[in-house]
Amino acid sequence: MTNYLVNRLFGALLTVWVTTLAVCFLIHLVPGDPVQIMYAQSATTTPEQLDLIRHNLGLDRSIIHQYIIYMSNLLNGDFGTTIRGQQPVLDLILLRLPYTLWLTITALIISLIIGGVAGFFAAYKQGQWLDRLLMSSTIIGISIPPFWLGLMLLAFFSVNLGWFPVAGDGWLSLILPATTLAACQAATIGRIVRSTMIDIFDQDYIRTAYAKGLSKPRVLGRHALRSGMVPIISILGMQFAYMMGGAIVVEYIFSWNGLGRLAIQAIFQRDYPLIQGFILTFSIIVVLVSVLMDVLYASLDPRISRK
Amino acid sequence: MKVIKTILITLACITTVATSAKVFSADDIIWARYGDIDTLDPHRSTSTLSMQVWNQIYEPLLARDSEGNIGPNLAKSYSVSGDGLTVSFALNDNIKCHDGSEFTSKDVIFTYERAFSTSNPSNTKSAWGPIKDVKANGELAVEFTFNTPFGAFIPFMADPFASMICDSNEKLGKSYGTTAAVGTGAWKLDNWVKGDKIELSRNDSYINLGRLADNKGAPKMKRLIIKVMPEGQARLAALQTGEVHIAEPPLESVDAVKSNPKLDLFIADNTGQDVFFEFAISRPPFNDIRARQAVAYAIDPDMALDIVFEGLVSREYCTVAQGVMGNDPDFCKSVGYKYNPEKAKELLAELGYSVSKRLEVNMMTWTGGNREKLLQVFQSQLKQVGIDAKIEVMDIGSLNARVKQENNITEGPGSFDLMGWSWYDPDILYQLWHSPGAYEGYNTPELDALLDKTRSTTDPKKRLAVVQQVQKYLIEQAVHVPLYTPGWMWLYGINKNTTGLKFEPFNQPIFLDVTIK
After folding, report:
1. What is the DSSP code string of A84-121?
2. Stated pTM of the model
3. CB of A44 within 8 Å of any CB in chain B?
């Protein structure tokens, strides 16, 4: 187990390191000079002044030198300052990060509950009308684009019924965006739970449990569901990463002040330091969550860490 | 262990967010816009989103009435010397900065010196003009001296770009502009949650000395909350539920606002915004006047604007917008090009292009405001005379940099762009077209000479005559092809329970008189 953990952590660090490389050189791959963008509307900025600004940003040094500076700044917690408005990047990101995590974790819980229950019952009633109904609704869930679903939920639950606020940062404001974000993942989880459950229902140990005379709820709850959770955990890491990505659209629609919205704004404004900070934070989180899930998976199923 | 710690910290953060939710009170004005300010520092941005907020927190020395005439504000009077080289201001006394300190000539000088700092000058430094020196004559008088007369200085002193920054901000260090800002305006900064909202509260010691409002004292409402809601349909939904009082509706839903008995639609005019075509003149085809003229003849702006905006914007014939000195539609129309596709074809034929050998160019603009749709209409009009224009849409910051680049490239397909500028004075033409120019585009020695004269002529009548010469030159050379005004953020959906919102020229809302039933 310790070996496994060390291996996984090493892999994670390597991924993050490669990301820092990519992120640092990103600024050189994209067309357009950020300093020119910054002062494009200022007719009186002389080329000498632009050079001075470039120098202050370290853009006039060699790539390797820039990377060393970038890394030492990063390790000191300095992610740079934004081009528009000259704000510290790390502050902006840390301010927004909890909102995105809060949204994605809530959405993950919703999708687990909906997907788990739907998948379980679909498997239980395999081939019957409930199964068909649930499985066809998962197709709808997967196919509906989140931006459309979000607007529809907004129009119905906020404007017509007045149950939820259109925007805001309280619990009540969280429900609609989290549901929108959860819809697609719930459908995916539902389908996976269903196929896992169908396999499990056919296993010998389930038959044995029934043969021992255990009641149905006990067999399903204790024996089937528990072992059915293992494959779900293995995909949770991926699901979380998908949701972090999906949050970008959902945050935009519901005026949710998360990292995703910050990223859209940064991309539109070609605010490179902010884009760099965003990519780095995003990848660190995704890597961290996947390590966490792997460890959890390994501790649930000891065979994994021995491989 | 580390992992567990991280989880705990994350959970702690999440709980903080969950419990920090605040409900707005009945004394709040809630205004929703599509984006956030860049900064609270008036020297670090040029966006309309930012200006509209600065204008609540800070005050300029002068202010405009509804007609655009310039009058007193922080300064009770001003005078310009006979040679135009000295401008003196007498300041009102008893004006307090938000931190309680007195507003004096020191603050004016602090603002000026900050704008001219060599290491980090203001983004709008050039608008101050050729200032030689600034000195205080006691606590309440300031004197600016110029190297050459500068006619656009007085209008600039009435603009949010020239907001007076109290010298106590110096003590704030790096937090100035990001978490703190001290001005003399009607609203004080409580909190800026970046990307989400700006919370301002009433400045109880405020005296209105020149702003466009009946109220001569502090605002009637306690707080002004400026929220960011990027999605247009969400803003409209929030207006309908009463969650926000003022918001820009999405263009495609203007009818929904008009037909809703609970909402009013307000269209800001005299925004100072001029949207126009300009060309990369560093290479063929647009280095030849005939190619530029061909575009000007090939397009029918009246029809395009009607299709895309259905009467929500007005046609602009001049190179300076309505409400700005020099805007004379009859004059500009008389020197401009009228829709004439045959003429366009003739000019293209002279250049060697025809319907079979088509001219291929790029046509750029920036995101939002239905501008992409407008370009699609122009695209089809251009197609009919034999010009194939490829549309490219990007963020305004990128467009600004891109246009500059295009003007320096000597090879590749031709390029022109739909650009928009908002300015309070014809000095905009100097900034755009005097060499080197904001985009390093078209310039000639004659044009430079004319533009120099628009700066050095201070007598309004004589200056107007020079401005008209410049406009004639730019329009005839088809360098700046005026299309329409206003171009961005000019529509306001207002909840009917909200009254008293007023607009100063150049799209500056004033909340002093606002009450909410």
Report:
1. TT--BHHHHHHHHHHHHHHHHHHHHHHHHHHHHHHHHH
2. 0.84
3. yes
